[in-house]
Amino acid sequence: MGLASVVVNGPLFIYGPLGFTPILRRILGPEGVGHLRIAHLPGFEVTSTGEAAIMAGLAPGAGQAEGWFVSDRDAVQRLSYVAEVFDLGAPIPVTVDHAGLCAEAQTFPGHPGACRWHQGAWAERWGDLLATAADELTELAAEFEAGQMAGRVPMILSRAAARLAAKADAPADLRSATPASGVEEYDSAITHAGFFLSRDYTLSHPRFDGTMSAPLRREVFVATDAALVLPYDPASDRVLLVEQFRMGPYGRGDAR
Fold first, then answer.
1. Element (H, E) at 188
2. Residue 26: pLDDT above 70?
3. Other Cβ atoms closer than 10 A to 3
4. Minimal CA–CA distance to 152: which of 111, 193, 198?
5. DSSP secondary structure code for residue 208 in this structure
6. What φ, ψ does residue 232 adopt, rounded to 5°?
7. What are the angstrom distances between the C-alpha of 196 and each of 40, 149, 161, 216, 229?
8. CB–CB of 242/174 below 8 Å?
9. Angle between helices 21-34 and 128-140 (to 10 degrees)
10. Distances (CA, A) of 215 to 143, 196, 204, 218
11. What's the half-sphere exposure (Cβ side, CA atoms, 13 Å) at 113?
């Protein structure tokens, strides 16, 4: 995992979007999530600046903020990295109620606001997007420090939105509807990761005669969704289409 500029020593209290279980699974893995314990921070509430806010923060309140008590050192490092990428502020000391006992920890203040944060409403709008973005973020974390990744968040979120859009069902009423599940993928790796991203694939794909192609190496420029220009010949009232294996949609995560 890459490095955060601020090192958190000791346990960490996480809450709100960063404590959303599907996101934690992407960052820590199933085993890492299994070591977390529910905790509460009295005198604080989780708030946000509004429905359009992808992150939340802590604000003084009469209730208590629910979250997770993280004691594993590797998990603390991973979550601290993500917190810095999303600019959740410098860690502050807090005392949480953990398993009926008071425990000292640190937490990130985040981006509090006037609106109380509700996980259900937030997850409906942002949950899948942030969880999908966490896949790319954790893959790149070994190569880049958190400060380097912060400026790439908008593009990472845009690429995640494109992958989610690819999962939407679409009609396949042409001659072939080759499923992505029919592709044999041997290897894939990110070959360039700046503001834009390129991924290299080695794979075989089904051919129209029913056989599999020889192993191919292809590179995909992973971008956001875009419009296409379709050449049209008004004299013949025709367009020319070539039916072939489409590496771009495959790299986007399209089901066909």
1. strand 184-193
2. yes
3. 16
4. 193
5. T
6. -130, 135
7. 40, 12, 15, 23, 22
8. no
9. 60
10. 28, 26, 5, 10
11. 15
Q: Give me the residue label for tokens 């997770």.
A: 68
| Tokens read off for 226 | 């875009």
Residue type, 20: F
Please give the C-alpha separations between residue 59 and each of 34, 68, 84, 91, 251, in angstroms, as whole numbers: 28, 17, 19, 14, 41
- Token representation of residue 161: 């939105």
| Dihedral of the alpha carbons of 33, 38, 42, 47, in degrees to the nearest 10 | 50
Q: Which of 158, 223, 215 is nearest to 184 (CA)?
A: 215
Whether the CB-CB separation of 59 and 45 falls below 8 Å is answered with yes
- Half-sphere exposure (CA, 13 Å, Cβ side) for 86? 23
Average pLDDT, the chain: 90
CA 86, CA 110: separation in Å to the nearest integer? 9
Whole-structure pTM over 0.90, yes or no? no
Query: What's the CA gap between 65 and 103, in Å, rounded?
Result: 15
Structure tokens at 168: 């939407």
Contact 98/69 with Cβ under 8 angstroms? Answer: yes
Structure tokens at 36: 């977390």
Q: State mean pLDDT over 57-83.
A: 94
| C-beta atoms surrounding 48 within 10 Å | 24
In the prediction, which pLDDT does 210 show? 87
